[in-house]
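Narrative of activities, Objective 1.

The group set out to show that a structural description can be obtained from nothing but a protein's sequence at a throughput compatible with the screening campaign. Below is one input-output pair from the validation batch, recorded exactly as produced.
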Amino acid sequence: MIPATWVLLDSQSTVSVFRNPAFLTDIKEKKGTHLKVYTNGGSQVSKMVGTIKEYGEVWYNYECLANILSLAEVRRRCRVTMDTSVEACMNVHRKDGLIMKFTEYSNGLYKFDAAVKRPINTSNDAVTFYSPDFVFLETVEKNKLSYT
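Output recorded for this entry:
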């Protein structure tokens, strides 16, 4: 199984589909349309979409095998670089200036693990650890909206 905290950058996928709702906000039914994908494992229908901060809308389907970003869609929104003579990874240069590094896993998939804390340099050159790529923040105000 692919961990729920992994995001795969897939060069063979034509659409981005996520199974982990923790990565998404504003999950809702996409009225009037749906997505039917065909894979070597069969087909699957998605009727929901959600939003990824600093990226935009993706399809949501809790029955998906993984959180998948289509490389074709990503490269239309962000710069993507790869130099395999340096490292087996793909770097997605986000609009906010941060770089997400998708490293090659032993089976050939390129993954970003949001559960891993990463070192970053702060303005005072101290090293701090956090993962700026996905924020799982819940506020009391937001939680109150779910109750009457």
